[in-house]
Amino acid sequence: AGLGGIGLDTSRELVKRDLKNLVILDRIDNPAAIAELKAINPKVTVSFYPYDVTTPLSETTKLLKTIFAQLKTVDVLINGAGILDDHQIERTIAVNFTGLVNTTTAILDFWDKRKGGPGGVICNIGSVTGFNAIYQVPVYSASKAAVVSFTQSIAKLAHITGVTAFTVNPGITKTTLVHKFNSWLDVEPRVAEKLDEHPTQTTLACAQNFVKAIELNKNGAIWKLDLGTLEAIEWTK
Asked: Which residue, 13, 28, 194, 214, is the most exposed by fewest CB within 10 angstroms?
């Protein structure tokens, strides 16, 4: 989701860099945002493909075939789709976790060094709730914990697959995601307002640290992006 809150600001930061291509996969087309990204740096080819992460693995593979045929090489995959609404249990798990597992699995078809692939880098967006749950939204928090755990395994498999991985885990960020959302079984009707009382960061500060984390490209890193800072978290064994 390169066109939502943190995603769009991260895309803006990415195109300022020395990129050849930026491919954005999102459910909602936003031609104005794409045009803006193209204008920031005309040297970067920005393209958009409609994609819903909840589609089956076979559909994802089909789309990736198209993209790889077009670009020949893809160096980095950023998995960034996310929803926050603990009333939508199945959808939360489908978008935040299953979709990410599927896109990762699908791209390994093209990257896996056991198949003669060149390897690659996967950047998964977790959340600080992945290691410090907001207990009023246990489904969301658990889906993010699953992302952190899954990514740690991918990182440890790099010697087999040639694919490295790390997570960026934003803290509370001023996005539409936290304007209003439902707690699990309505245990806390004011959960959104309560979160807003906490110190937060802007999507721009988050995006700048996000791109820093991508540039550092540290396999197995668990980056915490909170209050405008970038910090490596130690995974408790």
From this structure: 28
